[in-house]
Amino acid sequence: MKNTVNKAVALRISALLKIKNITKYRLAMNSGITHSTLKNIVNDTIKDNLLSTVILISGGFDMTVSEFLDDPLFLEDNLEI
Q: Which of 2, 10, 14, 31 shows its CA 20 to 30 Å from the CA of 37?
């Protein structure tokens, strides 16, 4: 089953939160986005994630956007585009 890009972003964030052992609140603070925005992204209730938001979230994880997107979730064959 293919994921939407939004779902892939949500899954990647959830996985990284566990790997890096940080909370959504801390990630929001580190990223400079509101906790409610991050919650909506993780819950996949946002229609379209902006690349600028993904860049901020990547920075909140102390990663580049390339590192954030370097996951099989984002392979074209795994996405519903």
A: 2
Q: What is the pLDDT of residues 41-68, one digit of tens each?
A: 999 898 887 899 999 999 999 999 999 9
Rounded to whole angstroms, the Cα distance separating 1 from 37 reads 26
Q: Which CATH number fits domain 5-70: 1.10.260.40, 1.25.40.10, 3.40.50.720, 3.40.47.10?
A: 1.10.260.40
* Residue of 25, 2, 11 lying closest to 68 (CA atoms): 11
Locate 56 and state its tokens: 């901020």
Predicted structure pTM score: 0.91
Could you give the CA distance from residue 81 to residue 69 in angstroms, rounded to a whole number?
16
> Residue 79 forms beta bridges with which residues?
3
**Chain centroid offset of residue 10 CA:** 5
